[in-house]
Amino acid sequence: MIPDNNSAGAARAAPLVSFEFFPPKNDKMAARLWESVSRLEAMAPDFVSVTYGAGGSTRDRTHETVRRMARETSLSPAAHLTCVSATKQDVLNVADAYWQAGVKHIVALRGDAPEGMGQKFEAHPNGFRDSIDLIEGLKENAANNSHKFEITVSCYPESHPDSRGPDADIAFLKAKQDAGASRAITQFFYDTDIYLNFLERARAGGVTMPIIPGIMLQPNFEGLKRIAKLCAASLPDWLHKLYEGTENDSETRDLITANLAAELCQKLQEAGIQNFHFYTLNKAGLALSTCHLLGLKPQTTGVAQ
Ligand code: FAD
Prior knowledge:
By secondary structure, the chain is α/β, with parallel strands linked by helices. The protein has ten helices and nine strands. The longest helix is centred in the C-terminal third of the chain and has 21 residues, at 250-270. 41% of the residues are buried.
């Protein structure tokens, strides 16, 4: 275990958090999202991010969501952007529109094949090949129009299904950093050693940028199993046991989920990690409970009474 420069804070300082949302599909989901955004704004996150649907399917909704965050909140929003099913110019146009809207942070991703996760990714004939090509494209674009985005990338402590091996994973992450990324967020995990070992290997491989643990707040264990299988994230036996018998009890599942996430973060804090990125699934309650358990209090009054 190594002390890390992921954050400047000492182990007992309040953590620095960020929250991930997905763009809403309908009015009901939009109402839930904006209520969640407003409640989580009070936790003064470092940034918030909005995902880009598979195959660019949420392009307009992602754009509208991120723009509204920039326009109507005090939050610092980041837009996820993928290379899927689009020409380089299309992707750069989307990025330029973000810049014009005041969104200056991109989470640059390759993305999955339009047929879905687990299918072989084929780049668009005139598109970016992979996340590194996308980062380089954004940098080249910035040389022409000064849109110097802050760039965050993904990484996979348990290896991505397309991994060419553990050493190649670290070299690939280092190449993302060399191309211009300044932060990585991990795929979710439930075993702190998986993250800490990856971090240690990344540091040994010359990756110096912060590698923020991605903490999943999914109380639906069946849903979690489905996604974990697709992205090759392991779910320990004790986790199966923990959720056993809660299938018809959402209240208990929520309590378990927030406590579990807080415990994971606390173990990471003991190793000197102070930055956490929460996959909120647009539900403020779980993220707020987890933050409270970590000692992070709302910074403003009058919100979410
Ligand atoms: P990359 O990291 O570019 O590549 C995936 C892996 O393949 C690498 O980690 C490496 O192991 C291997 N690899 C690829 N090329 C090489 C090479 N040349 N040499 C060696 N190894 C190589 N998906 C969405 O559709 N929308 C989102 O908004 C979204 N947000 C995400 C946010 C986070 C934090 C994470 C972790 C994932 C997110 N995803 C999202 C999922 C992501 O799109 C998929 O996992 C996709 O399959 C890979 O995209 P990537 O940018 O992570 O790929």
